[in-house]
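ping. complex inputs:
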Amino acid sequence: MPGIADPTRPSTALDGPMISLRGLRVSYSGREILHGITFDVQRGETLVILGGSGSGKSTLLRTLVGLEKPTAGEVWITGKNFSAISDAERDDIRKKIGMSFQGGALFGSMTVGENVALPLREHTKLEDSTIDIMVRLKLDQVGLSGYEQYKPSQLSGGMKKRAAVARALAMDPEILFFDEPSAGLDPIIAAGIDQLILDLKQAFRMTIIVVTHELASAFLIADRMVLINKGDVVALGTVKEMQYSTHPRVRQFMDRVPEPAVAQELDYLQMLTEQQPRQGSPSPGRSR
Amino acid sequence: MEFVRKVGAAVINVLSYLGSLAALGGRAAFSAFIGPFLGKPVRFRSAVEQAMEAGVRALPILSLITFFIGLILALQSAYELRRFGALNYVASAVAISMSRELGPLITAIVVIGRSGSAFAAEIGTMKVSEEIDALGTMAIDPVHFLVTPKFIAMVLMLPCLTIWANSMGILGGSLFGVLQADFTWSRYIRASLEALFLRDVVTGLIKSFMFGVTITAVGCLEGLTTSGGAEQVGRSTTRAVVVSIFLVILVDLVFTTLFFFLGAH
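pong. complex structure:
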């Protein structure tokens, strides 16, 4: 709906936000996962989307890159409404974004070099020799020089992540998305990935969006953070604002306080095993 | 009432599945035959690799199976024919039933076992490890990238394999003909060729083309609709084989009926 007098339409000027979400709702088979998410991501900033398991943060990321269709609301990327444009236009936007998946999602039948080269081969008319050089450059950038001929199965978890970042960087994207960059990695390797994100941020002034639940990593790389809980934005602010926030949900997440429902479930177990229900114990159930 | 509702739900499920199959087959056919004229060339190298895998590498096992089938056909038809002293009709019986029916069908079943299942497993694994999603975010159409090369390979290779299977079946029949029915090799082959009309071979090839479309669509659809983890890939693979065999036989029935009435006049 690119109408002229549409007040909900974000500015398309160059200094406007890179990504705007307007009342975004997403449902899976009748169950609503996101209940109207609204926020902006500024050009060149690093935004960390925080949230517990099942909070909807992964769904949010998948909607941002167009893998899920919103049931209502809009995603504006680089001034275009992602859900109201033609497939060709959407593909044009997708060429400007790079996504690093949780498990890397490298193509197992191809070498690391071919993986990084794939977007270039599909979308550009560059000579093979030029593509080879660009692949080498991208692999250098993520610290994987000389691994062109390896198969993804021969790489460690951290190296796979790096190779995936190299592939995401292949088309020189304006926006880079990370899904759980440090999940499943040991602290040292995870710190290396954080450093890589920081390097990319400083070197290219890229807009970077990271979904994670690792607080330490979030505080290190973020300019701003948004906390998602049960499909709603709970808080949005700079790192400092989040650290000193008094919002109970933010405090709970920052201070790593367990969900009360978990304690209740333990009570329930105790009740089942010892058959001595504690007085006033509320009925069991997970609140998320 | 409950029964009616269940039947209705099952019918809707089947129809929507067939619809998805047709949509996928249509998209693959579009990007194979029309896409190249719109500036989206087919991934030729991948299609050749798939043709090698689905076609050429199937030759040894297919040859053996269809040779045996030809021999079995000869034995079975001789069992009845010898009562009428008509053993010299063995050659035509084998040639016609191989070319019209068993050549295409046995080929399809061998290819389902080797390639239909492999398509589902390969694409299903890619789906659960987010590789299909990765293609999407790179603005690469998974159908064009993965399904179209397989589609091209299958619709080219299945008719070729079928011709090969027909020949091997006739060869198998000739073993019986020479050893038990007083044929010489050359007379058996000549009798087979005389019995065959071009129509017999062509209807078989048309069927095998349709089998190729069916097997590719089912295998790839099962792969693309895999969700969850590794055990779902196994389930998709099994479903791909079972559904493919069923649909191939259904397609066979439809086309055989069609050819029967078309050939009546």
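Chain A has a mean pLDDT of 81.
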